[in-house]
Every structure is written in C-alpha cells, then in structure tokens.
C-alpha cells in the first residue's frame, strides 16, 4: 500500500515528432527509429500532414493525422500550409508539448510557425546546396531567405552528417551554436537478425549462385540508378555471370526498365515466372519489408547517388559486413567510409580505397562522364575478381559501424533533449 506521503512519479514530458508523410524514404525510416527510441522517457505523439503514403506503418505511440492534403496550385498550397500550422498549434496546446522535432523541410516550416512556447528542434536529413529539387526562383528563396531566416528560430538544428552542418553554418549563415551533428543510428542486432533470414525465391537462388551487385532504396533520380545501369552493362560484358539486383520502388521504375531495354539488359520483375530470373541481367525486387535479407547476401553493395544525407542503406550494408562502393557525393559516404578525411577540393576522378570501403566519382559531369563510368567499371570488375579484398573490406565496414549503434547515438539524442 502506498504511503500518503509518497511522491508520485513525475509525468513524462510530452514530445511531438512531425513529418510530412510516412513514405518509404530514409527520413521516414529515421523518424520511425526516433519514435521508438524516445517512447520510453517521453510521451510521444507522432504527427503527419496526411496518411496518403502510410501503408504498413506501425507504431506503439499515438499517431495523429492532420488530414491536410498536398498538391494543387499555388493558392491551394498556401492554404494547406496555413491550415497545417493552425492544426498543429492546436495539437501542441492540447498535448502540452514540451519539445517538437520536425523531419524534412516542409515539416520544419510548419513546426517553426506553429510554436506555443515549446522548444523546437529541426532534424535535417539532406544537403541544401546540392538538392536538385531546389531549383529556380523558389529554390533560391528557400536557400537564401527561408532557411537562413526561419531556421535560426529553432532551439536546435540537428544534422545527420558533418557535411550538412558545414553547409548550414558556412554557406547559409546559421549560428554555429545552434547546429550540431547527430548521425543516424543502426540497430545492428536487428539488422543482422533480418540479414540471416533467407530471401524469397528466386532471389535467394540468384544471390547464392551468381556475383550480384545490389542497390537498395527509392528508385528516385537522386539515386542515379540510370547511370549505374550503364556501368553495369559494361561490367557484364567482362563478367557475363554478374547480375544487378535493385531493391525498392519509386518514380523512376519505368525509366529504369526503358534504360535496360536500350542497353540490351534482360529484366526480371517481381511477380514474373521464377525461371526468368535465371537468365535476367537486372532483377527488380520492388519494395521489400526486410531489405537486409537481400543486402546481406550482396557480392558488392553499390551506392551511385548524386547526393545523400547519412545513407541508411549504405550503413545497413556495412553492418552486414558487405564490401561497399559508393559515389563520393555530398554528404555522408565519405564521412562513413573515410572518417577524418576532407572532401577533395576538386571532384573525385579516380577510385579511392578508403579505410572502410571504396569511394568513386559521382557520375554526373557531362565533360567527364565516360571516364568516370570507366573508373566504376574497372573498380567493380577488380573487386568482383578478388574475394580476399572483398572480405577485408566487409570486415572494415562492419568495424566502422560500431560508432553508430542505437545505444551510442541514442545517448546523444537523449542528452540533447534533456539539455533543452
């Protein structure tokens, strides 16, 4: 029986996490990781603009849908924006939110303009200077007006990589005292457990009997998979048994199929007759709820992206002890594979055998594209022919990921929130 003088346990502080949608991107995966991590010490409410992309999303926290659509013309978008701010302000008051954390730029603006006295934190997942979606006049306004003026109102800005922090402070003029780096974390135990599971047929058979390059993530332009297909076509000319496995779905699916046709690369698509996978050069696995089962069996994991933040798929491959070859794009791959090194003053034009993987040129410059593709081809062919080198790279990759465990990075987040 409790004593009448016993002090009741303090109520957990209310924490709100905000993101535009619950799609299949890396930011959404980090959002879900943070929601699970913080659910112990805080009373967490997860909030989205709408549930259009939330198929299969599960959470033990309260999930609040603002039910405000996106799209439409300029006037409709302005109306939707102010409606989101109004509804979020009401939610913050009702939940007596102590700290609100937003993920992705659209959510950042709504979070900043709906404050009710809580501490507002922004989690920045990608480059602002190299984001190809920030183009034209609106892109200029976002980079040079909205971000420099509005972001400084946050109590803290957390970037997932040191490269993004440097952009915000050195290029966009945000106060250095407000911007700190907390890398994404990787639940190594869960990743390895999933990696030990057998992929579905026919992928398990293909991965067991062929050298396979694997790329995982959204099939989006910034992932630069169209360039990867051209590289792979040349690799396959020298190693005909090699296959390319793409795990994920996205808006470039049709364009990727067309590029395969142009390059005379036979294709297997998820759902087709299993026998077709034996002769296909490129296999499209589509969305997979457990991508680690594919990644863990890759001969080489490849990341040809034009830009990244702190790429989750790359880190998961490293946890699985896979040798990785990644474009030296802004930001993330260099920080993960070659810690302590600075980006070269001129774009990388040759393979860099880094401490924990291989860095390669970003295939985007029309003046150097043929030479950059050749660097990729030669490097991948050499790695495919050298099992000992791949094994050593995989071990080095796994060692690196010990710096990004859930416990290590989780303590950084908890320390920040406690300080706020």
Automatic annotation (TrEMBL):
Gene3D superfamilies: Glycogen Phosphorylase B. It holds the Pfam family Glyco_trans_1_4. InterPro entries: Glyco_trans_4-like_N. SUPFAM superfamilies: UDP-Glycosyltransferase/glycogen phosphorylase (SSF53756). Residues 25-189 form the Glycosyltransferase subfamily 4-like N-terminal domain. It comes from the Bacteria. Transmembrane segments: none annotated. PANTHER family: GLYCOSYLTRANSFERASE (PTHR12526), GLYCOSYLTRANSFERASE EPSF-RELATED (PTHR12526:SF637). This is Glycosyltransferase involved in cell wall biosynthesis.
